[in-house]
Design brief:
Number of helices: 7
Radius of gyration: 37 Å
Number of domains: 5
Structural class: mainly beta
CATH class of the largest domain: Mainly Beta
Shape: elongated
Strand content: 35-45%
CATH superfamily of the largest domain: Exo-inulinase, domain 1
CATH architecture of the largest domain: Sandwich
Distance between the termini: 50 Å
Length: 717
């Protein structure tokens, strides 16, 4: 099989079929993208059928899984003069010519003084399952040979079963019947005598595999030798066989035999899928299980369980965050929440420095996934968790390229064939004016004149807004320029909140909830009565892209963003700019089928198709992998186009100094920001509507007045 699947660390490849993988990456390119930060990011799903038994017998990932090790021996802590004795797990070693075998200094030792060759053997425990894996460490000590055997039908080695041969010249898989061996597969090797090597051997069904590697080095992913045989299909013994050709001893230790028979169905278990080269192509958790039966005419009824799962990133939607940040960068916030709430994520690939500093950012009872995606939605960066648990946070301008391109005239070296299923330019998704609705923000100090209500009898005066304290932390009420002592009508009954007439200190009581004030003594007719306070009004701004407006004409194509967690103008503007960068000229999407592995969502790929006049770079939004059989796959790609020049401007804008809020305290009306993408300097765009440029994107400054840098716009190539 060309791929492998593990469920909670156990290989279930033999018990799974009809595998379906999908990696979805919206990244601001789907319909309505950008209008909600929740639409940023990736989503990988998996589905396959298993014969792991009925769902009612499933185990939980947090429960103790069924034991998989059936025999193990460290050889540590015992000395045995003849044979290997009792293993560290309590199993017994038995065999022939045991006098040549011993245990000392944490090693099983096999040696003979003379009479070469000699063939001692040692068998451990009782019958192992049909599907079994053996791992041990061995040092040959010269031109000796070490064998491990499995599926032996005898109580100890009597020349029947499968075995792996390892010496200084050969590495073999053999089938042995009545001491007559047949090579299944053989390769030439040259390990160094006296050094220690690890050997792993596996029998699963009719497939036999083995590999070796030098102690202290990394275990290789592929098997050195793999073959098939149907000579032995039942359970049998496992153990060692040795050929002694020189007096130097063979040393063995750290023996483990593992049951590879049908594992348990694990709920909420971690799923990892690897391709034939050992590369992880999907990782996540099982989340949905469906018992299903099929009955096809003429065939036996089949019962299986369909497993659906989501990738690591989707799992973050189940982790809730409650945090507040002041003057923190995007990288500082992401580092903090990931380290605190999901420490299993590897953060080593995060950039060292942030590109945007949030004046204030509050997250109240939102998921960790929402936190990360919200940050990316404001900065315009691409964020995702890969299938090896690394978090990536990249500028769209630095996203990785696919390892090859697709062309209608492929050279089969750097470009390969494809089939265009769909090519769409969707102007329904075009947006060139965005209205942002944020959280409430405080006004400046506001003075309200309520003098017309003074008539010598009136003691209750309403406020225009729900009052908050002024910048000095107090409310101020003045009658003919004389400040009154103010208390709270809703406060505790202490002297400062009690009228003077009732023995207290207050001349005026303010009720912020009812937005009014009450005088102890009514102001006289004609007196000037002023109330000074602050109030809250919602943050509402509008940002336009005038180039897009000119292209499409009137009316504006409107979009909106609502985020009650944004209270400052710079962050709101940045969020709007990202949406305009994504959708100011609509959404271009392309659906392509191709047959070569290596493309991942989030990469860019060059597409040339002369028939459809396509020649450009596209962002890979989704990769759906469909097995075709015989280890072949078809990859259904969903691609989208970004306006890369605008993205470059947006990324530069994110790094600019924070903008000041120039709205007046008494004017909570819409803040209109025109041509924000033409005028890279947003503050200037609040005041002017002029057009400047052109400026050119250059690798070095020329000094002719046309150099582009943050603060200028109308960038030309």
């Amino acid at each position: 099989m060309a791929y492998s699947i593990t469920l909670e660390g156990r290989d279930i490849t033999l018990y799974a079929d009809e595998l379906s993988l999908s990696m979805q990456d919206v990244l601001g390119q789907s319909s309505g993208a950008g209008s909600s930060a929740l639409q940023q990011g990736r989503a990988g799903t998996i589905q396959f059928n298993t014969s792991l038994g009925p769902l009612g017998n499933s185990q939980g990932a947090g429960a103790a899984l069924l034991p998989t090790v059936i025999a193990t021996d460290t050889f540590v802590g015992r000395t045995v003069a003849s044979g290997f004795g009792t293993a560290s797990d309590g199993s017994s070693w038995v065999g022939g010519s045991s006098s040549l075998c011993s245990v000392s200094s944490g090693k099983g030792r096999v040696t003979a003084p003379s009479g070469f060759p000699l063939f001692p053997d040692q068998t451990i425990g009782t019958n192992a399952p049909v599907d079994v894996e053996i791992l041990f460490r061995v040092s040959l000590g010269g031109a000796n040979t070490a064998y491990c055997f499995f599926r032996s039908p005898d109580t100890q080695w009597l020349g029947n079963g499968y075995r792996v041969l390892f010496n200084t010249t050969n590495f073999k898989l053999q089938s042995v019947v009545a001491f007559t061996s047949t090579d299944i597969v053989n390769i030439s090797i040259s390990p160094t005598a006296g050094l220690s090597y690890w050997i792993r051997a596996r029998a699963v069904g009719n497939t036999l595999s083995a590999k070796f590697w030098l102690d202290g080095t990394t275990e290789p992913t592929p098997w050195n030798i793999t073959g098939t045989s149907s000579a032995y299909s039942g359970a049998g013994r496992v153990g060692f066989l040795f050929r002694i050709d020189v007096t130097n001893p063979i040393l063995v230790d750290t023996f483990t035999a593992t049951n590879l028979s049908q594992p348990a169905l694990v709920r909420q278990g971690e799923i990892i899928v690897k391709d034939a080269s050992g590369e992880t192509i999907w990782g996540g958790f099982a989340t949905k299980y469906t018992d299903t039966s099929t009955a096809i005419l003429g065939q036996t009824r089949q019962n299986f369980t369909t497993i659906n799962g989501v990738d690591y990133e989707a799992q973050l939607s189940r982790i809730m965050v409650n945090e507040s940040f002041v003057a923190q960068t995007d990288i500082q916030i992401i580092n903090f929440v990931v380290a605190k709430y999901a420490p299993w994520i590897n953060r080593s690939l995060l950039p060292p420095l942030g590109v945007y500093t949030f004046p204030v950012k509050n997250f109240r009872n939102v998921s960790l996934l929402t936190v990360i995606q919200t940050i990316a939605g404001i900065t315009g960066y691409i964020v995702w968790i890969d299938f090896s648990k690394f978090i990536h946070y990249n500028s769209p301008t630095t996203t990785g390229s696919a390892p090859f391109s697709l062309s209608s005239s492929p050279d089969f070296v750097s470009s390969y064939p494809h089939n265009v299923q769909e090519y769409i330019i969707d102007d329904n998704s075009a947006i060139n004016r965005v209205v942002f609705y944020g959280g409430k923000k405080p006004s400046g100090d506001f003075t309200q004149d309520v003098s017309p209500l003074a008539n010598s009898n009136n003691t209750v005066f309403p406020t225009a807004y729900y009052p908050r304290v002024t910048s000095d932390g107090k409310y101020h009420v003045l009658v003919n320029g004389v400040e009154k002592t103010v208390g709270y009508s809703t406060g505790s009954q202490i002297p400062s909140n009690t009228f003077v007439s009732a023995g207290g200190l207050a001349q005026v009581l303010i009720n912020p909830d009812a937005h009014n004030i009450t005088f102890d003594v009514a102001p006289l007719t004609g007196q000037t009565v002023l109330i000074k306070y602050q109030y809250e009004f919602p943050l509402v701004i509008s940002v336009t892209d005038e180039i897009s407006h000119s292209f499409f004409g009137d009316p504006y194509l409107d979009g909106s963003i609502s985020d009650q967690n944004v209270f400052d103008v710079p962050t709101a503007i940045q969020r709007c700019k990202v949406l305009l960068a994504q959708q100011s000229f609509g959404l271009t999407s392309l659906k392509v089928d191709q047959w070569r592995p290596g493309i991942k969502s989030g990469q860019t790929i060059q597409i040339v198709n002369s028939l459809r006049s396509i020649n450009g770079s596209y962002l890979v939004q989704a990769v759906e992998t469909a097995p075709l059989g015989a280890g072949n796959f078809v990859y259904h790609l969903t691609l989208g186009a970004w306006n890369w020049n605008i993205i470059d401007i947006i990324v530069k804008l994110a790094g600019q100094a924070a903008l000041s809020d120039q709205t007046s305290a008494e004017d909570p009306s819409l803040l209109l920001i025109l041509q924000v993408l033409n005028h890279v300097d947003v503050q200037t765009s609040w005041l002017k509507l002029e057009t400047v440029g052109p400026y050119y994107a250059r690798s070095a400054t020329v000094g002719d007045g046309h150099d582009a840098f943050p603060g200028f716009a109308t960038v030309s190539t």
